[in-house]
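Narrative summary of target 7.
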Amino acid sequence: MATGDERQQAVITRASEILPADDRVLGVYLIGSYGAGTADRFSDVDVHLVVTDDSADWFEAHWDDVLRELAGPTVLADRLPGMIGGLGITPDWIHVDLIVHQLTTFDRFQYDGVRVLFDRDGTLFPEGDLPAQGGRPGEPYWPELSVNRFFYFLGNLVTVLGRDERVVAHQGIDVVLEQLIALMLAERGVRRTSGAKRLNALLSDEQRAALDAIPAAGTDPADIIAANQYICRQFITRGTALAERTGNAWPTTFVDATLKHLRNHFGTSFD
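Modeled conformation, tokenized:
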């Protein structure tokens, strides 16, 4: 197993020693590179806690104090939206995440690769560490939210380029691309996630080749449009096939309205 460097290891040691002493903490585990056994000197240390439901408010208010107990002084401590916890950066740029899960919402299969540091009752991870599956395919599913978001964000290309907001339009490529990747994961039935900086293993060779073929774009409107056209055609081809495969309805009315909106403004087809 890859071990990163001694500064990262020191954070993990403190997490193993300090956190179990708090009776409200029911479990402590690592995800990301340390969870998957692929850590190197560039790795983050992703520490996750399972806590009693009645202590969640306390951890919501004091997560950064707990993080500094593990990491030492920080030059940045920033809450992560939608989560209890956040990230910390030390003066020598060790990146430590501390995320807290309430017992009633805890899902031990949420992440691909888990290293268990502490399990108070032996019930959170009865099988112990969960080896990374590398995005092992499962049953395809329908990512309805990503489908709707894709066509919503794609339709906004008319607004941003209509205002000549070229930088915003370029940033929008990443937004629609994120939805295409979510669709690709759904094609493979991949639900478990690995670290935010590791995606290759979750995609097939064919999917990665399709992503590699996205036309390069700077801030020239023609290049931005070409990149969005390619991504849109990929999305429609894959999305309609996945809808049929999973027995879900393709949002034809919304899609057709969006494509017409784009065609009317840009004078070119996106499908």
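The longest strand covers residues 95-102.
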